[in-house]
Design a protein that fits this description.
Blueprint (H helix, E strand, L loop, with lengths): L1 E5 L3 H9 L5 E3 L2 H6 L5 H11 L4 E4 L5 H12 L5 E6 L2 H12 L4 E6 L2 H9 L4 E4 L1 H6 L4 H15 L4 E4 L5 H10 L3 E4 L1 H7 L3 H21 L1
Parallel strand pairs: 1-2, 1-8, 2-3, 3-4, 4-5, 5-6, 6-7, 7-8
Helix pairs in contact: 1-3, 4-5, 6-8, 8-9
Bound molecules: erythose-4-phosphate.
Erythose-4-phosphate binds next to helix 7.
């Protein structure tokens, strides 16, 4: 499973990239807005200098011509820019046009399996089901990933399932077991993934024993 980091923060992206396992980045208008005073295009360019994998940059137009115009500017930034479009009718139209031209598209805000089927038919590179937001309203977000996996397998769609709105390492485990192609995670969750109390206490014991044996020899 590929791991993307879901943030607009250069600091977090650098730290995630330094781990050596980062495959890409997703951003959205809310994440970019958290980065006070930052120019959107400059920030995407800066991210692309750090990460070679797909970097999702989201449009804010709600009609296909506007989305295509924004996409034109965004794809000039770097070859790894992926255009992120909302899963609405106008987004679907723009997705088909861009995908036919070989532009990578990430269709975002997917909340039910038929949206995922439609974006695959329109040639999207990624479909982004939002797990956490479904859980937030009492639905089973993980079941959406399961349904999309089955549908894509049934028909051999190549669109990658990008599990999004991930809130915990457990989400990540479950998405991996179902067979999501990609998971995009907040940096905080990426840090949590590497922590286990038994790893910490085991390492502490190893180091203490090493010190004791060396102190004895000295
Ligand atoms: C994905 O591309 C989105 O940016 C993201 O995962 C949304 O997550 P949230 O529901 O935690 O805002």
């Amino acid at each position: 499973m590929k791991i993307f980091v879901d943030t607009g923060s250069l600091e977090e992206i650098k730290k995630a990239n330094d781990l050596g396992v980062l495959d890409g980045v997703t951003t959205n208008p809310s994440l970019i807005a958290k980065e006070k005073g930052v120019d959107f295009h400059t920030r995407i360019a800066d991210i692309c200098k750090i990460v070679k994998g797909p970097v999702s940059a989201e449009v804010v137009s709600t009609n296909a011509p506007g989305m295509l115009k924004e996409a034109e500017e965004l794809i000039k930034i770097a070859p790894n820019v992926t255009i992120k479009l909302p899963t609405i009718a106008e987004g679907l139209k723009a997705c088909k046009i861009l995908s036919d031209r070989g532009v990578k598209v990430n269709m975002t805000l997917v909340f039910q399996p038929l949206q995922a089927l439609m974006v695959a038919k329109a040639g999207a590179t990624f479909a982004s089901p939002f797990l956490g937001r479904l859980d937030d309203i009492g639905h089973d977000g993980m079941n959406l990933i399961r349904e999309i996996r089955t549908i894509y397998n049934n028909y051999g769609y190549k669109t990658q399932i990008l599990a999004a709105s991930i809130r915990s390492p457990l989400h990540l485990v479950q998405a991996a077991m179902i067979g999501a192609d990609v998971a995009t995670v907040p940096y905080k969750v990426l840090e949590e993934v590497l922590h286990h109390p038994l790893t910490d206490s085991g390492l502490k014991t190893f180091l203490e024993d090493w010190e004791k044996s060396h102190a004895a020899k000295a």
